[in-house]
Amino acid sequence: MEKYAVIVAGGKGTRMGTDLPKQYLPIKGLPVLMRSIQKFHLAEPLCKLILVIPSVDFEFWKGLCAKYDFAVPHQVVAGGTSRFQSVSNGLAVIEGTEGVVAIHDGVRPFVAVEVIQESFLVAKKDGSAIAVVPLKDSLRKLTDSGESFFQERQQFRLVQTPQTFQVSKIKKAFEVEEIPQFTDDATVYEFQGWQVSLIDGNLENIKITTPDDLSYAEYLLSKVG
Ligand SMILES: Nc1ccn([C@@H]2O[C@H](COP(=O)(O)OP(=O)(O)OP(=O)(O)O)[C@@H](O)[C@H]2O)c(=O)n1
Ligand SMILES: C[C@](O)(CO)[C@H](O)COP(=O)(O)O
């Protein structure tokens, strides 16, 4: 079975607020994005890696790969104006409809190798595999009138990536017009009326989003490497 990974890193990192977009920032000496790509290569050495970055960054990325002697083979594709468009551009370079594709945020370098491997196995069987984790804190729902109500946290999950799919199904799902409810790939898949399969993610698999995440990332690397 052919395996692909579309690693999306076409964003601007507005919430991080750094001049250099967060995907290129080094943590413990290696850019976030290279760490994410390495994880897929380690988990699935034969997986075809498709990296989505803004087209204006192509030369910069080439230079970064030379600087860090980064040799993991990958195809570079131009990003779009939203995560949905970037994923769509990545899927478009997969020829045909055979195989399974993992879609992963380039800014989640702490994904566990085991989660990636499990996602491919489950997606092959079920059509999809979405990494999720349970909540550790209590949960409250806010109303417009300023009240709040207890919610059963057991009924909720936090959604991560990878989100892995049979190529035929996810390509079909992405043929739709983008709507604001498409916050991830699972919502695009579900829009077809298909149920997603959930798998256990790993708690450390944070999305590096704000400056405090960078300090936490450095801490995690000092612990686990
Ligand atoms: N047009 C876009 C927007 C986002 N992404 C990617 O989607 C992932 C999750 O998005 P997010 O954390 O929101 O990244 P940014 O959009 O860069 O951050 P911000 O919203 O703070 O600007 C990131 O790997 C990001 O690079 C993308 O490929 N193309
Ligand atoms: C895809 C995602 O990382 C799953 O948790 C998340 O939905 C991305 O959200 P963002 O608003 O683009 O950061």
Automatic annotation (TrEMBL):
Sites marked Transition state stabilizer? 15, 22
Under the heading CDD domains, the entry gives: CDP-ME_synthetase
Q: Which catalysed reactions does the entry list for this protein?
A: 2-C-methyl-D-erythritol 4-phosphate + CTP + H(+) = 4-CDP-2-C-methyl-D-erythritol + diphosphate
> Keywords, A to Z?
Isoprene biosynthesis, Nucleotidyltransferase, Transferase
**Keyword Acetylation attached:** no
Give EC number(s), comma-separated. 2.7.7.60
InterPro entries linked to this entry: IspD, IspD/TarI, IspD/TarI_cytidylyltransf_bact, Nucleotide-diphossugar_trans
Looking at the UniProt record, the site noted as Positions MEP for the nucleophilic attack sits at 153, 207
The source's domain of life comes to Bacteria
Q: Tell me, what is one Gene Ontology molecular-function annotation carried by this entry?
A: 2-C-methyl-D-erythritol 4-phosphate cytidylyltransferase activity
UniProt cross-references to SUPFAM superfamilies, sorted A to Z: Nucleotide-diphospho-sugar transferases
Pathway field of the UniProt record reads: Isoprenoid biosynthesis; isopentenyl diphosphate biosynthesis via DXP pathway; isopentenyl diphosphate from 1-deoxy-D-xylulose 5-phosphate: step 2/6
**Family, per entry:** Belongs to the IspD/TarI cytidylyltransferase family. IspD subfamily.
| Annotated function | Catalyzes the formation of 4-diphosphocytidyl-2-C-methyl-D-erythritol from CTP and 2-C-methyl-D-erythritol 4-phosphate (MEP).
Identify this protein by name. Answer: 2-C-methyl-D-erythritol 4-phosphate cytidylyltransferase
Give the species: Algoriphagus namhaensis
The record lists the lineage as:
Bacteria, Pseudomonadati, Bacteroidota, Cytophagia, Cytophagales
